[in-house]
Amino acid sequence: MQGHTSNLQLLKKQLDRTFKKEKDRQKAHATSSKILEDLSTNNTLLGEILRSNLNKRNFFSQEHYPVLAFPICASEHYELIANVWIPLASKSTEYSTKSIHHHGPMLLTTVTAFGPGYFHYLFDRPVRDESESNVFSMKVLAANQHERSTSLFVDQYLPHCPMYPEKLSITYALWSNSIQKQLLSRVKRLPFLRQHSTLLRQIGKKIGLTKALDLKLETYLDYYPANDHFCGVKEREEVEFKKGPIPDRASSIINLLQETKNEDLLSLCEKDLLANQSLGEQIKERCLNLVSKAKAGTEIESRISDGVHFGFEKANFTHDQIKASL
Known about the structure:
single chain, alpha+beta, 2 domains, five-stranded antiparallel beta sheet, 11 helices
């Protein structure tokens, strides 16, 4: 008797088959978007994704970025991640979650799998003002709500910008290189290269290897609105968020489990906290208290770490600021 095949295993088989069969990466994404759309209302799959990650050591009890990432599956051709978009405490949808940015030669397909989704801007390639090095003009290609079960494709080098959602939302984000590079994909997935990508970019820039290794070295990856134009940001460190405190992550994951009706996974959160020997006692107690309250039926609010993940001129701007810069 054969063992039960999970939704996760079936999804990976479908994506593996698609990327192996279709050499054209854009066509592979188009096919994959239909697969993800069909699965976007599969609550069992979402539960498996959450359980798979919460079973990982220290996944619950670690610092975090504003968007919570739950890896789903990957191969040398693609990577699929569930991104959890946390609303602001005010529930305002006026602000951007990050700078306007592109991903170099990477392709991105996202499908909203839970919640109302976020409002999304997609821009044409930026045009630099020849008289000023960091001044750009951009045209909007699309501006709409990324609703549940709808897919969104972001082509290589096209800037885009997700705004804050009104309520907690989850997207399945599929990444791949625009060009099939099996050997380079395998090399870049080596632990050393993944852990030291920043160092390798610096070294590669000096010795001319960044293009060969495809380490996404670009002059301008990020932009922000400034009156009647956009400004390019040369150093990504200027707009990259730092990791937020563990209790805020704990609150947001607990809220996620409550919102998606996966409270049975709270025991995994508790188990992770108790097993984490490097966690400070005060932080551990604080997080365990949150889990206990949730088990008792208290609703736990998600938390955006103010001053760490929000409140930055070049990363958190409004719809009106974007429109004024067009």
